[in-house]
Please model this.
Amino acid sequence: MVKIKSGYPQLLKYFMWEWQVYFLISAKVRAESLFNEINRKLDPVIFMIGVSTEDQGSPLICYEPEDMDYLENDIDKVKELAELLDSKDPDRNMYYTGDGMNAEMKNRRVRKNFRLAIERALDESESFTDKIHFVANPVNRNGYDVFIVLQLNRTAYNSHVFLHKVDPEERLKKHLSLIEAAKDIYLENQSHLLHLPNAGRDRGPERDSTELLRLAAKNFLYTIGLVGRSDALFKFQPACDAVSLTSYERSENEGYMIIAQQEHEDIEMILEIDSPFLITEYRKLRKELQLTGNGLAVITDGHKIYGLGKQKNTYNPAKEDIFHVFFRGKYCYDIVHNESTILRMRYGSPDHTNEQLNKESFALDARRIFPGITSDQINNVYNLSMILAKQDRGSMLVCIDDAANEANRLHNQCIGIKPVKLDAALLINLSSIDGAVIVDRNGIAYAKGAILDGVVGFEGDASRGSRYNSAITYYEHRGWEKPTMIIVISEDGMVDVIPTLMPQIMHSEITKLINILEGLSTPETFERTTFYEIMNLLQRRKFYLTNEECNNINLLKTKLEKLDQTSGEYTMWIKHDNFVPNRLMNNRYYLKEKEEI
Model:
């Protein structure tokens, strides 16, 4: 198919308001900053759909960016789907008192179901594979209801730990995971910014990814607080924060607390307090936590502290109404349900580092690294990795094609062994000494205690330990030459898979950003904030740039930086580093483009 250049983004085929291109750029920057911090495999994509509220004029549906109009057939189904959802909505049976309230609540219900219909239509679209969509409440701009759409990788999204219990009769919004709370906070923030008169030019209040994550964690903790009693909603989270900061006679801030309904049938009280005290009496609670340990916990309903007790073996995890809080030191605590950590709070922010391996993500990486690898082989390597991940010590597994020759090459830096198929007991034994275990994709071991070689490169992380950095150095020096996967288990329980594969993208993402830079390159069109945000987006995509694109961007950057410095509006400027191509980049990182007429 021949692509016809439309003139976008200087000329808009679908005009909703003057600054819509810049608003979308800003939304992309925020989304990538937030969701890449949670999980790099989420691969956030942002676009907007505008629906005419006047049922006249042209066009009735707008898309930003305009090349998303290939979704036209999917969006055509939304009206009928929304009517179906609305016909089944139990809120239709609600009657509201007060002048005009019935009409107002009906309008809210219809708009909600239209939004949900967009989500479903996009989720079911044949245009997407393994994607999940979330749509913000619409904001009206010049006769269009503008819906902001957040698209994430479904496998990566579902790899996060979720609660499952939802009460359809409950009116209060509950968040079932940190990632769900984060996407809601993001969309609410963007909807708020979309209300600004010149959204896209007017910046509004800026919230960085750290602040958004803290708000997401707080909202998730509200859900946990509700399991005790409704008035504990806003008490439980502040109590956890305050107690984790409160020391008792210079001892470590440790302890164990259970939140559940008062007199819960699956809680056994061992030592009851005569006069239960409020959870807001933080020093008193801190003192009580000193008595916990060996399975004994402080029992609370989020409102009052009732004494010491423990969870019975009769508890059914599907009920999701008993949660455990483990205080891990100064300003650190974990929320646990059914022996699974659902939230780790560290110094006021959620620590979203994956402690264990998600099987689906692991399999996707394995198939990209090892051409032709079978499901049985993936299971072999995954199971071996999980065995190591569950040990209380650091270790490393190197899975490499031609493992026999690699063990021979490293013979002075490892203990070679006769090829042997690993099982759990043998792997635990081999990993008990320092160094890596070298295996092939079939789970056959060839060496133990391997000290990996390599030349220090560019990808190390000074905040991480020697085991992680030696794996990075080895892969940078030798791993890219042949299919190699390294699983690193750190002493603190973190699990890393090396290489961290970059997600696949459409090459048109790069060309669009370059086109916008070109459009800013005159004194009349230069816009500083947009320039900086485009450079931010390109910096996040620097891995994908070809040599020609690097040269083009560097020339444009120099020209735009000169415009920035000579505008006369500012006395300080940002100087951006030149872009250079990455030697690991190849066309396999590009997705197939949508065909255009």
Observations:
- Residues 505-591 form one domain.
- The chain has 17 helices and 21 strands.
- Residues 101-123 form the longest helix (23 residues).
- Confidence is low (pLDDT under 50) at residues 1-5.
